[in-house]
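Still learning. Any example?
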Amino acid sequence: MPSLDGGLRVGFVGLGNIGKPMALRLAAADGIELTVYDVVPGPVAELVEAGARAADNVAAIEADVVCVMVRDDDQVRAVAADVGPGPVLVVHSTVAPGTPGELAAQGLTVLDAPVSGGPMGAADGSLAIMVGGCGDAFDVARPALRAMGSKVVHAGPLGAGTRMKLARNLIHFVAFTAVTEAQRLAEASGLDLVQLGEVVRHTDAITGGPGAIMYRDTTAPIAPDDFWHGVFGHVAALGEKDLAFAIALADEQHVEVPLARLSLDRLREGLGLG
């Protein structure tokens, strides 16, 4: 339960590039008493200067909520073992889909709550935080989550936050790979890659990038009389035309663009148009 003076006692373990600015947001938040731990002393000292307490080890943290932002599943397991039952364990690290359930099976109250937005989002409190777990645990942790993120989504039961993060990052890294194809094509065509990058960032900020098509609540085929049939039909027509032109240019420049070819083959069906 929260401390007697009304503040939510929060522990934070893992003060790296994203964890430290997340913890600094908690240190600045009203109604939160923050205790931090990291194996590196520098970030801990910075958090103490910002108003947090320092714990000698994870087991020494007394808190209602313990947030964890460490490197991998093994480190998460080690922290969880030291936290033990009692606090709500909020796992911000991106872990394997089965890890949150594995921790819960050990008698821990767990929320899987990976984040999206990087160090910049962590610093200004604009992270998206995708949370899986029971409603009661989510309610306890909510003030801390809202101090760190401007988009906090309760995605569903335990594991849902991790599954949402993995789906989100699939977009991220497939898009990165597509960018490398586009850069090779642009370079072979004599274009300035820095200027191309400026154009991409400018237009994605206007259109929303890949997220611009993510408004339907299903991936099922779209009925011809559905509003989205016309919208996505237009998207598919433009996409197929431009992909065909880009592939033809790639052939001229002897540049391999396998993702572009796959996209041309699958775009219409993927949009639900059959």
Q: What stands out?
A: Residues 239 and 264 are 8 Å apart (CA to CA). The chain has two domains: 8-158, 165-270. The beta strands are 8-13, 32-37, 53-54, 65-68, 88-91, 109-112, 115-116, 127-132, 149-156.
